[in-house]
């Protein structure tokens, strides 16, 4: 009897508590991820904190939040991270690709993984890296994947690659017509 293979769900979510050793708390989220961080933001109300929301955040009710468009996101996130003191705890919520991009930016600027808290994406999208054309894009979890760039049908590997910030998609082979036939094209 074979054990069922489980699909690696990518980076795991961390606990929903503030990091007590941090002197500064930085919350970075897409508009949809704001709800996931709202409890933590409320807990940090008396602490030194900063909130950056990318996209729409109409349900925020957070006076000190800074809002920016998706087009300005990379520059705004970089600016906020550069101004953050060394003992900052970073809390990130949003889609998987957004979380990975913020985490990679923070790592590049010298923040450690223990300082970065990641929260579950708000959608059923996941990032897939195409090994044929070397591009990444987001796809729905329960649909077939066809690369948006090279239009090849992809088979998504079960393991998540932290290096790529994505699941790896390899060119899918067509189904073999006969079980014993090696696809030589006789």
Automatic annotation (TrEMBL):
<dbReference type="Pfam" id="PF22289">
    <property type="entry name" value="DmmA-like_C"/>
</dbReference>
<protein>
    <recommendedName>
        <fullName>Dimethylamine monooxygenase subunit DmmA-like C-terminal domain-containing protein</fullName>
    </recommendedName>
</protein>
<dbReference type="InterPro" id="IPR048037">
    <property type="entry name" value="DmmA-like_C"/>
</dbReference>
<feature type="domain" description="Dimethylamine monooxygenase subunit DmmA-like C-terminal">
    <location>
        <begin position="127"/>
        <end position="170"/>
    </location>
</feature>
